[in-house]
Write a structure and sequence with these properties.
Layout lengths: L1 H22 L2 E5 L11 H7 L2 H5 L3 E5 L3 H9 L5 E5 H9 L5 E5 L7 E6 L12 E4 L5 H12 L8 E4 L3 H9 L5 E5 H5 L7 E5 L1 H7 L5 E6 H6 L1 H20 L1 H11 L5 H10 L12 H11 L21 H10 L8
Parallel strand pairs: 1-2, 1-3, 6-7, 6-8
Antiparallel strand pairs: 3-10, 4-10, 5-8, 5-9
Helix pairs in contact: 2-11, 11-12, 11-15, 12-13
Length: 336
């Protein structure tokens, strides 16, 4: 009997790790401490509201502070997918530091805006001033540098101060600790007071200055190959949730009320109206937009020392989006 039990234990020692590995959740790394007040919230809400489970994948959300931390977590195996800044992903691929595959952009163009102290009205006024950022390499830092450079600002004359999350940056601006910062529309609308700040660039002007894809969800090439079924399910669920929120904004509001009880429902309803047309109902990785973004980034100072030019086709994998669209159908109304 003892020998029989020992044999069973030996077999279990071999089989159980494999069973647990198969049952391990698919971990998505998001650079936000809480569900953000932007369409990128679809990543969180798809888990909270059951879209991932409906698509057949068990997802766990892993939270970190910003894109650099998300990349570090992905590289060290703490997650399977990471939502990161497009420019950082390109730099990693160009330097052969990571073999990444961009598989979806849940919120390709964040509704950023620049707010500043009263009296600072022109982007040129920021030269010599202190500009609050999440951290060097974060999406707000990288994208704002592109925007300001395109508006003729000498971005190297700005003093960048790493402060952290958008709400903290907004509080620092109100307190007079910095001169300006970039926040999303949701953060601005939920600020306790607008009396001490001016909107230097609204979301429309910000996007016009740099109409680029800013965020992308990436996996390693190894994950794309070995966990392709789960990657496909996540992509399908994300697009399905985005379409639901686009067609029924009240569903997004209902989800956000649970995810962010600190934000009044009426403010969430106002945001839902502002985000009409912003949902990534087709996966967000348009070839022309990606090429235009890449070309623009390679003209920026941050890309001048890269060893090679990386084209979207070198690392963007649309196969997961295409499979999802085949299953979900076109996002456009019939006849259009």
């Amino acid at each position: 009997m003892l020998r029989f039990v020992m044999r069973l234990l030996a077999v279990a020692a071999v089989l159980l790790p494999a069973a647990f590995a198969a049952a391990a959740p698919f971990k998505i790394i998001v650079p936000e401490p809480e569900t953000p007040l932007v369409p990128n919230s679809v990543i969180d809400l798809a888990e909270q509201m059951g879209y991932y489970k409906k698509a057949g994948v068990d997802v766990e959300i892993v939270r970190v502070k910003a894109t650099p931390a998300a990349i570090a977590a992905l590289s060290s195996g703490q997650g399977d997918m990471a939502n990161v800044s497009l420019d950082v992903a390109i730099q990693l691929v160009a330097r052969n530091q990571m073999k990444l595959k961009g598989v979806i952009s849940p919120d390709k163009a964040l509704p950023f805006m620049i707010i500043a102290k009263k009296g600072l009205t022109s982007p040129k006024d920021l030269e010599g001033k202190v500009f609050g950022v999440g951290q060097v390499g974060s999406v707000d830092y990288a994208q704002t540098r592109n925007v300001l450079a395109n508006l003729g600002v000498d971005i190297d004359k700005i003093k960048y101060l790493a402060i952290g999350q958008p709400s903290v940056r907004a509080q620092s601006l109100i307190a007079g600790q910095i001169d300006a910062t970039t926040v999303a529309l949701g953060t601005y609308l939920t600020m306790p007071s607008h009396d001490a700040v001016d909107v230097m660039l609204d979301a429309a002007a910000y996007y016009k200055a740099a109409p680029f894809v800013t965020k992308v969800s990436v996996v390693t090439a190894d994950t794309a190959a070995k966990r392709a079924k789960e990657v496909a399910a996540v992509v399908k669920a994300t697009i399905a949730a985005s379409r639901d929120f686009s067609a029924h904004p009240e569903h997004w509001v209902d989800g956000m009320v649970k995810a962010r009880p600190d934000v009044p429902r009426e403010q969430l309803e106002a945001l839902a109206k502002a985000y009409a047309g912003h949902w990534s109902v087709d996966g967000g990785l348009d070839a022309k937009e990606l090429t235009a973004t890449t070309d623009a980034l390679y003209k920026s100072l941050d890309f001048k020392d890269l060893p090679r030019k990386v084209d979207p086709k070198d690392w963007i994998d649309r196969s997961f989006i295409d499979t999802a669209l085949d299953a979900l159908g076109s996002s456009k109304p019939a006849g259009k």
